[in-house]
User: Which sequence fits this backbone?
């Protein structure tokens, strides 16, 4: 058995259409160290979720994975419940790829600490299931915990 430290086991998540389909069956895909055992992989995932800083950044399909896993908004892998916030198909029913304006309305995230509040940035956006949906109760919970967003306007 290889002497691999838990922080060297998981190299990165695999985010593909197939891996997203597998998540519906509570199967998750990671690129791992080639010599890692199943028990080392399990330990690494549990430590990542429960003992490390707990920070995760999900962009595009990565954010979709966090939502579908339940990490957003529950903070643990539990899957989605009937009333959970989710991402669904765009209202136009097809993939959208364009540049959008994004306004920073909160800098509570460590990735936005140095961003200017109220600053507007131009970013690429590309997704077929990019529409965030949540009921009013969830929106209130998310806002109370510092989640803030505004609709992005196209260039």
Assistant:
């Amino acid at each position: 058995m290889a002497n691999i430290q838990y922080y060297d086991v998981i190299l990165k998540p695999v985010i593909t259409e197939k891996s997203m389909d597998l998540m519906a069956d509570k199967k998750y895909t990671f690129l791992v160290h080639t010599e890692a055992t199943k028990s080392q992989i399990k330990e690494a995932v549990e430590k990542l979720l429960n003992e490390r800083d707990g920070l995760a950044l999900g962009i595009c399909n990565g954010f979709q994975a966090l939502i579908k896993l339940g990490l957003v908004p529950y903070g643990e892998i539990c899957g989605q419940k009937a009333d959970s916030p989710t991402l669904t198909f765009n209202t136009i029913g097809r993939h959208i790829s364009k540049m959008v304006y994004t306004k920073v309305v909160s800098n509570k995230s460590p990735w936005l600490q140095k961003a200017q509040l109220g600053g507007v940035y131009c970013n690429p956006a590309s997704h077929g299931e990019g529409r965030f949906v949540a009921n009013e109760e969830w929106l209130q919970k998310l806002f109370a915990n510092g989640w803030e967003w505004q609709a992005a306007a196209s260039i």
